[in-house]
Amino acid sequence: MNLDREQALAEAQRIAASGGASEIEVSVCQASEAFVRFGDTGPTQNADRDRVDVSIRVRLKEDDGYREASASCTSLARSETERTLKRALALASVSAPNGELAPMGGAVEVPKTALSKTTSQHDFKAKAAWVDRAVRACGERGLAPAGLISTHGSIRTIVNSNGRQVQGATSRAGFALTASSTGGEGWGGAISAEVDRIDPDLVIERATSKASANRTPIAIEPGAYTVVLEPAAVSSLLLFGSYYGFGAREVSEQSSFLCGRQGEKLFPKELLLVDDAQNAFYPRLPFDGEGNRKSRVELLANGALGEAVTDLNYAKKMGVRCSGHSLSQPNTHGPMASNLVLATGDKSREELLAGVERGLLVTQFHYTNMIEPRDLTLTGMTRNGTFLIENGEVTSSVKNLRFTESLVNTLKNVSGIGREPEVTGALFDGEIVTPWLRVEDFRFTSSSDF
Questions:
Q1: Most exposed of 21, 158, 172, 298 (fewest Cβ within 10 Å)?
Q2: Is the pTM of this model over 0.85?
């Protein structure tokens, strides 16, 4: 990876000090990625690529507020950044003044972070060895593999004319495998900041064992079931809290599921959900899109929902502290809880299953969408391995089902929490840290033919 902290910082400082606006903010993201996609014949796509994204936000102070705009480019060359600054100034000059904007933040201290050497040095040869093991394992079981192995590193630099100067680095490694037969699929995946913490053989075994057990799924009637949700399924539900529920904009607009519920003891006291970018298991950038230091926020604790996350603008609007959850500005979305961590419990996989007389083990959800925001009612389909649980034992694989359930009810009905955390995402943007969950009376509203 060829990422230059010093160059990014020097150019951002120069632009922020160049004048021409009441306030200037420069954000530079340098990213390096290497990945391999593969199928049953081996690697099908391989790429190593570096990218630089520069965003320049300017403000022109007026009596009735700030005129604000931003422009971006993909180079740190001075000629490119100067043209980008001119575009931002031109756009700001014709924008409408906004009296609700808070001033850009000043100097702040943030924890130091570094790129993972093992992740950045994981080359094509190392990835190809994982591909070979996956293809061989699938071939031995008569399965077709499809997968992705990727490593990523990025350095984010934010400097503004009010004295703010922050810089941080993050790393990510991921391995995902879908194994398929004529009857069904199985999936396994792992994500970590450190590539050597990923066990490729465990990922392969998860995918191939599920696919092997999913060759002849049976149909079952929809209805309310006790479910044991693997982390990938949990993430598809909880991430909607990030998108639509835990932010101050949704609370201020009265569209959040927090409204009318904050502080009320509705949930199992064992549930602890926080937004914590500096958690030890999967640390991320310690600052947000404005360069504010990210605070650890308890979103659900002691059986009750907590406060919404904020950025500078919503902290000013609502008269509360800024928790450091801004997206890059200007942005109409509002603050977002983007580093969810669900605390582990004390149950093993076997103990979670043992509590189920008749229910379902769910590997993943997909096509998940929101129906109603105030309860965060969601709908979607099971995917890549759904299995019947009878008297604490996993028995038959079942055909996929559509669920329609609210996140509020899901969290209320948690009856068991796994003791091992995993980093996982969904088929859309975002990742969380979560264990397995057992949930009572989870509603499935229709079935499928596959």
A1: 298
A2: yes
